[in-house]
Amino acid sequence: MRNVTLDTVTDAVIGSLGKFGEIDDRQREIMTSLVTHLHGFVRDVNLTHAEFLAACDYLARAGQLTNDKRQEFILLGDILGVEVLVDMLSNPVSGNESESTVLGPFYRENPPVLPKGASTIQKHFDGEETVYVEGYIRDADGNPVAGATIDIWEDAPNGLYENHDPDQPDFNLRGRFETDENGHYALIALRPVPYPIPEDETAGELLHYMGHHPNRPGHLHFIISKDGYRPLITQIYDADSDWLDNDSVFAVKESLIGKFEPAPAGSDTDLVLRFDFVLSEAQAARMQAAE
Ligand SMILES: [Fe+2]
């Protein structure tokens, strides 16, 4: 096409897809939609050349910031609500299964394996509140899921995850537990506190451009896995925390809010949190059952 105009440029780009190299159906679907929406966005806001150059510079700086400790594009995707949207599309909930939510950037693989009821606390903080966390993991029919693996991680009372805080012991407030024959799990942890996502550099620029704050409500992270079930990546939110109604990454769901209650007198902890989960069967298991 030699005479590209305002009216024809979008079709020209879409029409060029796969002309000089093989592309599959998914590539065609993604690129057709991307070009359609991107051109639509540019037309909607009547993007100026100066704004286009500023956007290129912004993305270049985000790329330069990304390293093994900070993945700036995940952060930008979180601030824009994209990670939670992808998670909801990938893990639809159709029945009584527990809802998933974002993994976030602070998970570490292979946390310490701990026995049921053990504590993840390796360091104490002024003003901390200890909590006994327990509950049952079941399938959609209410049967206990025995031998499920539970990875848990959270921030310390100073708002930092241990891998971003040189003053915390390695793997502090992280652990891997297993459910017993009744599907029951239990552990001791600290009450999680709200914390700000990184608000410097390009993430901060985006937050400020959107007129947002960086804070997340207090939450405990969970990954629950067992062969035959879809892994559940989720978070439990403290019902009494600030920021529940305006989480900076839009990941709060009503069904994931838990109440931290005062522990009965004589308990080893200050608080108790009871929270049950329902796992979905893995896709393959579901298809087999339907046959
Ligand atoms: Fe978190």
How would you describe this protein?
There is one protein chain. The chain is of the alpha/beta class. It folds into 2 domains: 9-47, no CATH class; 73-290, Aromatic compound dioxygenase (Protocatechuate 3,4-Dioxygenase, subunit A). Helix content is 27%, strand content 19%. Strands 1, 4, 10, 11 and 12 form a 5-stranded mixed sheet that branches. It has a 5-stranded mixed sheet with strand order 3-2-7-8-9, with no helix packed on it. A two-stranded antiparallel ribbon has the order 5-6. A hairpin with an 8-residue loop joins β10 (261-262) and β11 (271-274). The model has no long low-confidence stretch (mean pLDDT 95). Bound molecules: fe (ii) ion (FE2). Fe (ii) ion binds at residues 104, 106, 219, 221.
| pLDDT averaged residue by residue | 95
CATH superfamily of the largest domain: Aromatic compound dioxygenase
Write down the overall geometry: globular
Total number of distinct structural domains: 2
Q: Unreliable stretches, pLDDT < 50, 5 or more residues?
A: none
Kindly identify the CATH topology of the largest domain.
Protocatechuate 3,4-Dioxygenase, subunit A
Global Rg: 23 Å
Output the number of helix runs: 7
Which percent band covers the strand fraction?
15-25%
**CATH class descriptor name of the largest domain:** Mainly Beta
Which ligands occur here? fe (ii) ion
Query: How much helicity do the residues have?
Result: 25-40%
**Shape-level CATH architecture of the largest domain:** Sandwich
What structural class do helix, strand and pairing data support?
alpha/beta
